[in-house]
Amino acid sequence: MSTTSSRLPSRRLAHHEDGRAVATGQAATSSVLAHAPAVLGTLLLHAALAAGALVMFLPFLWMLTTALKPPAEVYLFPPRLLPSSPTLEHFARILQQGTFAGYFANSVVMALVQTMATVILGAMAGYAFARLEWPGRDGLFWLLVAKMMVPQIITLIPLFVLVKNLPLLGGNDLFGAGGSGLLDTYAGLLLPGLVNPLAIFLFRQFFLSLPGELQDAARVDGCSEIGIFWRIALPLCTPAAIAAAIFTFERGWNAFEWPLVVTRTEAMRTIQIGLAHFRQEADTQWALLMAGSALAAIPVIVVFVLLQRHFVRGIAMSGLKG
Known about the structure:
The protein is mainly α. It folds into two domains: 2-74; 91-317, MetI-like fold, CATH 1.10.3720. It contains 14 helices and no strands. The longest helix is centred in the first third of the chain and has 67 residues, at 2-68. The radius of gyration is 31 Å and the shape is flat.
């Protein structure tokens, strides 16, 4: 009798523990089922992003493999993705051409000068649009935003006429006739790209995100507007400056239409114009073109990789405020 009574509490305890285990399992199952759509959506998103990254990487991979193929494999059909015996012959031929080094140097000068000018002038203009009160400020800003939506090709011919007909430059008379103006000069190559509306927009949005108390405190201490800009605002806008610098460097390095129409001699042409010489109407030297394109992509890739973290931060902090 006592043995039977002693077994009852243990059975009840075991039954109670089994019930708790079943309840815990049901709760875990419900939690998994509740989060399943979110997990599935995340997996699908990552799969789509991976597929998109692969699609974008394939042309770059094809460029590299074509540049490394022996001449006999470049025109094989069906084509091969990977070379049977990789060679650096095409890179050597590119580097042995004296004009390619000149093209490369001109692109470096163009990209660096335009980047530095854009960052300095863009920061000054962005601060003026964000922090200073002056007549017509908002209207001019929206005009600047509208300019960003105008394709560059539309302004190409008017800009060419303006550069060619500048008075008293390049043999021109007082009325801008008789000479070539700034054509085929570094000034003509660089001047149109010294100001970038996108950079001004990024700086303006960044300066709007800064606390106004910093500016007010500096004014109380007797700091001028120029001093506030150089000592307070400018040191804080490093992320926006890096984002603007990357955009401008990439635009200057890859510029094709403007250098094509403004330059006339080999000494003034940029690397993108030089690469176009490998593609003629009758024949295209694909191996040399791919090798040159791979070399031309290196500076942009290096700049982006080194500044990627600051670039993302600059875009995030230069949001659509105001």
